[in-house]
Amino acid sequence: ILIILIGTTFEFNLLLTILLVIFVMGLFAGISPVAILEMIGNAFVAYRFLSIFFLVLPLWGLLERLGLYKKMEAEFQYVKDATAGRILQLYMTVRQASVALGIMLGGHQIARTLVAPMVLEAAKREGRLLPSMVDRVKAMIVATENCGNFFGQLLFIASGGSLFVRAVLEQAGYPVSILRLVLYALPTALAAYVIVMVRCALLDSALRREAGEEAWKA
User: Are 183 and 154 in contact (CB under 8 A)?
Assistant: First the structure.
């Protein structure tokens, strides 16, 4: 734990930090360095399918080069009767669907630099916002990004999450196919989508209610 804390604090190479932790734990357990290397090599060969997701990296780069982000920004700007909640609903739909297809779209970078300004601007159209409501809108932006990414990625057969779950289950003696994992992840992804849609609608209601209260006070 101490090595991980030092490595992350000083931003050392994560892979080297993890390998160092493995060697230190092995040495304290009385395992020779050669045996540790053999264990690492055997694990890599046995679970080499965990690196399948690297095959889609060129696709991500190509889509970004062809103007994927600009296309997304243009689509968001033309949302009819755009409100904070509706923009987030659209982003949730795009985010979860794209991740399910293996397209990451940049994650929190896009949410912070592209989605957040539009959502906050749409929220301010309703009227003056209290700091607490601004924080609530920001929190909803992050929550939408997290839900879309987390629950959508397990629908992609080559995602790191699905491959990791498969590796853990196989190591425990429960062989399972990736397609079966995706099938079981589908109900959870749909439930998360519906919940986020409802929460976005409730956010719009809260913004309208606060705007009405502020107008009444004025």
Answer: no
- pTM of the model as a whole: 0.62
Residues 71 and 130 placed together within one structural domain of the fold: yes
Pair (27, 114) in one structural domain: no
- CA gap 162, 52 in Å, rounded: 11
Residue 167 is part of which domain span?
52-217
Answer for the pair 136, 192: CB distance below 8 angstroms, yes or no: no
Residue in the structure block whose two tokens are 């601007």? 121
Number of residues that make up the chain: 218
Please determine, for residue 62, whether its predicted confidence score (pLDDT) is greater than 80. Answer: no
Q: Report which of 184, 8, 186 is spatially closest to residue 97, judged by C-alpha positions.
A: 186
CB 204 within 8 A of CB 137: no
Considering its fold, how many domains does the chain have in total? Answer: 2
Closest CA to 50 of 181, 148, 157: 157
Say if residue 2 is in the same domain as residue 101.
Answer: no
> Within this chain, do residues 102 and 155 fall inside the same structural domain, yes or no?
yes
Helices 14-28, 2-9: inter-axial angle, 10-degree rounding: 160
- 63, pLDDT greater than 70: no
Does residue 89 share a domain with residue 130? Answer: yes
CB burial of 99-111 (b: ≥16 within 10 Å; e: otherwise) equals bbebbbbbeeebb
Q: How many CB atoms lie within 10 A of CB 135?
A: 11
Q: Distances in Å between the alpha carbon of 156 and those of 21, 183, 213?
A: 31, 10, 45
